[in-house]
Structure formats: C-alpha cells, structure tokens
Amino acid sequence: MDLRGYRRPDGRVGFRNHVLILPTTICSSNVAHRISQEVPGTITVPNDSGCALLGKDHEVYARTIINTAGNPNVAATLVVGLGCEPISAERAAAEIERFGKPVRYLNIQQVGGTINTLREGVRVAQQMMAQASTLKTEPAAVADLVVGLECGGSDAASGLTANTALGAAVDRIVDEGGTAIIGETDECIGAEMLMAANAKTEAVGKRILEVVKRFEDHVRMYGADLSTGQPARGNIEAGLSTIEEKSLGCAMKIGTRPIVEVLEYSQIPGQRGPMLMDTPGYDITSITGLVAGGCQIIVFTTGLGTPVGIAVAPVIKVISNTPAYERMKDNIDINAGTILEGKETIEEVGERIYNMILEVANGQKTKAEILGENQFSVWRTTTEL
Questions:
Q1: Contact predicate 360/297, CB 8 Å
Q2: Contact assessment for residue 276 and residue 181, using Cβ atoms and an 8 Å cutoff
Q3: How far apart are alpha carbons 175 and 181 in whole angstroms?
Q4: How many CB atoms lie within 10 A of CB 98?
Q5: Are the C-beta atoms of residues 77 and 98 closer than 8 Å to each other?
Q6: Which DSSP category does 217 fall into?
C-alpha cells in the first residue's frame, strides 16, 4: 500500500494535518478549548497542569508541551497561556520554533482577558487553518512511521492474542525501516531481563534494566510496592494474577527485533527501530508521552475495552477476546479474539493490524477519532506546591 503524508521542515512525516490550540496551563485550557470550538478543523488538548511544578517535573512538563506541538501530525500551533505560569506561552512558542512550523502565542493577562483572547485567538487560528489547508501530501514510506504501543485493561488472553499479534505487526514495520515505541515501564517488571537480552547492544540492555529498577525504586521511596497495586483490580478480575504475568504479556507488543534505544518520557527518538520509553502504566499519561515523542499513530491493546484517545494522533484499539469486542464495538477497531476461536492465526491478525496502521496513516479514521475522544495528561513524579 502506498503511503502519503505531510513532510515537515524537520524531515519527519505527519499523517494528519492539525492546527493545534495548545494551552500551557490549566488556567488557559478552557480558553484554548473555546478557540478551537470557534474554528472548525483545529484541535486542542485538555491540560490539567502547568503551574507549581517542582524539580524534574518542571523539565518534563516543558519538554512534553513543546514536543507535543512538534509532533509531525501538527502543521501549526497557537500557544495560549495565562501569563504567570512557569512555562510561559512565549517561552513555549520560542522552543516550538525549532521544528520549523508556524507558531504564535497569546497570554490572557497581556491580551486583556478571556473575551479579547478569544477574539484574537480565533483570528490567528483561522489564518493558520487557511495556511495549513494549502499543504499537500507527498509520497511517504513505512520507514516514516513512528507507532506508539500501549495496553490497558488487560486480561488473561492479552498476551496470547492482541499483544502478540501487535508484535507481529511491529516486526513488519521495523523490517521496513519504521519505528515502534513501547511504554509503561512498570509493566516491564518481570519481563525486563528478556527485553534486555533482546537489546541491540549491551549498553541498551543495561539501560533497560536501569530504567525499570529506577521506576521500582521511585515507588518504594513512597513506601509503596508495585506488586500490591499491579495487576489492577480489573486485570485480576479478568484473569491475571501477578505483575510478572501481566508484564510478560505486555512485552509481546514490541515484537522480536532487537531493541535499539531507551527514551526518557516524551523524548524524541534519535534513530529508527523498536524502542522503550520510560512512561507510567496510566494509559492517558503514557500515550501523552508517546505522542510528544513523535508517534503519529498509537496502537492500544486491551482485554476489557476503553474509549481513550488523543486529538493529536489516531489511536487504533485492538481487543483480545470476542465477548469484550461485542460489548465494546463502539470503541474497538480490531478483534483479536478470533485467534482464541481458531478462526485466524496470530500472523493473520498481525497482518490486519499492520494494514490498518497503513490505512489510518492514509486518512482512515479510528473509532476514537470518530467519537472525538481526547485525553491528555503529563507525567508528574513529585508533589506540587
């Protein structure tokens, strides 16, 4: 299948052509949302943070906001701030400029309140939409794909069907020069030795073990133990008994090719191939990091079903069993339960996932896009002031 996409100034390819209205803080999130409502075709993200961040959280938050605008699915960005937040709209816009795409900013306090900011924001957003509409797609390749891998609400079949079939699709993408990024560091616990053994280099393998241990140590610092909180209640009710059991199934998503890089949360990759990004197991926060890292498409496997989506990137849902698919048809794109029923092989479902990734890259809408699902949450690891 031939692919077409929008070649951005930094060389990456977008498979959507969004104008993003980006709030830098929760205080400007509603104004950004209202601007987006007034200008059809634009998107925004619901920001629940942005102020009173400490230490590393300040750095991670800034990187995530800036790199979200840098995602190649975004053609242009209007940054909307309040004016007194740590990561100001002006600073964010200056950093976003490095991606070479149009960017403007507004501060509510400087413009003179909500009404004036809405009026000016609508004007600027309309100009950006007019400019973005002139951009044309160009031939692209599977090698241009960066696919994020997520799972949530797993069951006992997840590692046998949906995750394993996704791994088969990932192998095809990687073999054609593409990139796949798996997140959810806490769901590598128990599988980290196998992942490290499959690393391309000894240094990458060592890094995988370090990142997983760092996650465990951070949780212990708060007097908690991941083994008591994972698997989550829904996972246990669905048939998973230990975090190791869950992790061994989750790790199947990354496929069988050597892991080439380990990324910090929301970091943009420096090469191509299978990768691990250090993200939490909370689906929305993990997906936010993957999208900020440049994933144009997310593939989300589930055993129970979920409506989660993010406006910046289409999210393809793959479910592990047919009964759950029948209950959650509104939200699910692919049923991998056919493997358990003997109707399809892992390879055949993997081929369906691979083909749908290409179809979505070429413009087919996912269920999450059709339903307008849009969640966004930046990872915070310290206490806010």
A1: yes
A2: yes
A3: 15
A4: 12
A5: no
A6: H
Report the C-alpha gap between 361 and 343 in whole angstroms: 27
Residue corresponding to tokens 């957003």 = 125
Distance CA 38, CA 385 (A): 34
User: Position of tokens 């009173």?
Assistant: 52
Q: What is the dihedral of CA 160, 162, 163, 167, to 10 degrees?
A: 110
Cα–chain center distance at 346: 24
User: pLDDT means per 10 residues in the chain (385 residues)?
Assistant: 96 98 97 98 95 89 97 98 95 98 98 98 98 98 98 84 97 98 89 94 97 85 63 58 68 95 97 96 95 98 95 98 96 97 97 98 98 96 64
Residue with tokens 């909370």: 282
Question: Which pLDDT score, from 0 to 100, does residue 1 have?
Answer: 84
User: In the prediction, which pLDDT does 120 show?
Assistant: 98
Number of Cα atoms under 13 Å in the Cβ half of residue 348: 10
Give the three-class secondary structure for 270: coil
Domain boundaries, the chain: 18-132, 142-371
Contact 83, 110 (CB under 8 A): yes
Give the tokens for residue 13: 């390819």
DSSP state of 15: S
How many H-runs (helices) and E-runs (strands) does the chain carry?
A: 15, 14
Q: Are strands 179-182 and 146-152 parallel, antiparallel or unpaired?
A: parallel
According to the model, what pLDDT value does residue 307 have? 96
Domain 18-132: assigned CATH number: 3.40.50.2300
Inter-CA distances, 221 with 120, 217, 281, 384, Å: 47, 6, 18, 17
Tokens 């997983």 — which residue?
212
